[in-house]
């Protein structure tokens, strides 16, 4: 599987893929997605367009309360803002490949920690199982006042 940087030409398809999974990752407008990409530490897509990942790092100005939670607690990290995999591509190692790709980018930048959040309410048991299988450990919880979702913060040294 090949992974590359996201380009402006990818935005319409990414927006559709993201918003089809709005319950798991918050829905975005085209301008909001473009804004995330402008601040991204890493913005990666599979060459078949079936999955993507957007991450920020410790130097990125806080991009919402979840990213801010980590900036207040960790010195160096790569924060996975969103990873979206099309339903037909799930269970094939695509998300793991995106995480491995991000880990390589982070290590090259001397960052040795991956962090993220997973929804507890509404529950996302598939995401929780995936992150636990990859070795992520819980490190906190919060309720996002913007949407009422309760999340568990997770971290994984790399």
Automatic annotation (TrEMBL):
PROSITE patterns: GNAT (PS51186). Residues 1-158 form the N-acetyltransferase domain. GO terms for molecular function: acyltransferase activity. CDD domains: NAT_SF. Its EC number is 2.3.1.-. InterPro entries: Acyl_CoA_acyltransferase, Bact_Acetyltransf, GNAT_dom, UCP028520. Keywords: Acyltransferase, Transferase. It comes from the Bacteria. This is GNAT family N-acetyltransferase. It comes from Sediminicoccus rosea.
